Structures are given as C-alpha cells and as structure tokens.
Automatic annotation (TrEMBL):
Pfam families: Longin, Synaptobrevin
Gene Ontology MF terms: SNAP receptor activity
Protein name: Synaptobrevin-like protein YKT6
Gene3D superfamilies according to UniProt: 1.20.5.110, Longin domain
Gene Ontology BP annotations: endoplasmic reticulum to Golgi vesicle-mediated transport
Location (main, coarse): membrane
Lineage, top ranks: Eukaryota, Metazoa, Ecdysozoa, Nematoda, Enoplea
Any coiled-coil regions, as ranges: none
PROSITE patterns referenced in this protein's UniProt entry, alphabetically: LONGIN, V_SNARE
C-alpha cells in the first residue's frame, strides 16, 4: 500500500489550478519521475475539471487510484495511491488535507484565475509521510485489524474446544463401555457365587 501524491487544486473555469503538491516517486526511476509527476497532475486536473461541485470520486487510471474531493468552495484535493490502498482512508486524508490547507492559507491566496507563484504551505509532506501506512494513520483501519486478529484467535479457540469436546465424547463412550463390562462381571460373579453355594 502506497501513497504516491497529494495535491491541492482550485477548481476554476476553464481549468483546475494546481496550488500545492507533494510527491513520493522514489519507486520510479530517476528519468521517469518528472513524467510520472506530470501524469498525476494532468489526471487530477482532468478529473476535477469534469466533476461537479461538490463531489467525492475515485478513478482507476493505469493501475493507480486517483481519489478526488471537490468542496463547495471549489477547493479540491487529489490523492494518488496504488490499488491496495483503502479508499476510505484516502478520502479521510483528503478531508483532513483540505481542512488544514484552508485553515492555514486564506481564500484570497488560493481563489485565483492562474497558478500562483508560491503558496507558503508545507503540510502536505507530513501528511504524505504519515499516511504511507494506513494502519498507523487511521484509527478505523487499526480497529478493523484488531477485530480481524481477535476473530482469528476466537475461531482457533472454538476449534480447540470442539476438538476437546470430541475427545470428551470418546472418554464418555469408553467409560460407559467400562461400566457395562463391570456390571456384567459383577452379575456374572454373583451368579458364579450362587452356583458354588448350591453345589456345596
């Protein structure tokens, strides 16, 4: 599971404007990184341009998942992940990123008609690093994994109890056979003693 990119856009007419972005492209060769970055930004702009306001969507493109969230104020976010990354966690990340961005950067700076020179916001790098492992970043994922582990342990325990129950059934059956054998022997010994008394 991997997050490759987090980007913040402003959905303006006619095209979305990239405001800020953070990319983790270490898994690509050095010569591919710029092309991959451009592909991710282009795909994000395209999805945002073609989506209504407000909207949450996930689009699969060339083996990657592009998660997009467009708010009512046209502030938009993009998270690019691999196919294994949970969509719920990615959309939760988008909500947090856009909330943090809008709290730290005033709307007058990002409600623009062209790409700004520089926006002083560096929170995307920390989000990108923290959300690489969804289990540590998201409480729901962590709880779900703990539930899955508990379910496995409980299943194994029930299986062991059932196996012990079968062994107990075998012991009960053997004890009944032993009791029946003892009863027959006791009755037989009583008959033999009575016959011996009569014979004497």
């Amino acid at each position: 599971m991997k997050v490759f990119a987090i980007a913040v856009f402003y959905k303006s007419e006619p095209n979305a404007i990239l405001l800020n972005g953070s990319f983790d492209l270490q898994s690509f060769s050095f010569f591919q990184r710029n092309s991959v970055r451009q592909f991710m930004v282009f795909t994000g702009k395209l999805i945002i341009d073609r989506s209504p306001i407000p909207n949450r969507t996930t689009v699969k493109e060339q083996g990657y998942l592009c998660h997009v969230y467009i708010r009512a104020d046209c502030l938009s976010g993009l998270v690019v992940t691999d196919e294994e990354y949970p969509s719920r966690v990615a959309h939760n990340l988008l909500s947090k990123v856009l909330e943090d961005f809008s709290a730290k950067v005033p709307p007058a700076v990002w409600k623009v008609d062209r790409e700004p020179e520089h926006i002083d916001y560096n929170g995307l790098d920390s989000f990108l690093a923290r959300y690489q492992d969804p289990r540590t970043a998201d409480a729901m994922t962590r709880v779900q994994e703990e539930l899955d582990e508990t379910k496995i342990i409980l299943h194994n325990t029930i299986q062991a109890v059932l196996e012990r129950g079968e062994k107990l059934d075998d012991l009960v059956e053997r004890s009944e056979e032993f009791y029946n054998t003892l009863t027959i022997n006791w009755v037989w010994n009583g008959i033999v003693k009575n016959v011996q008394r009569l014979v004497q």
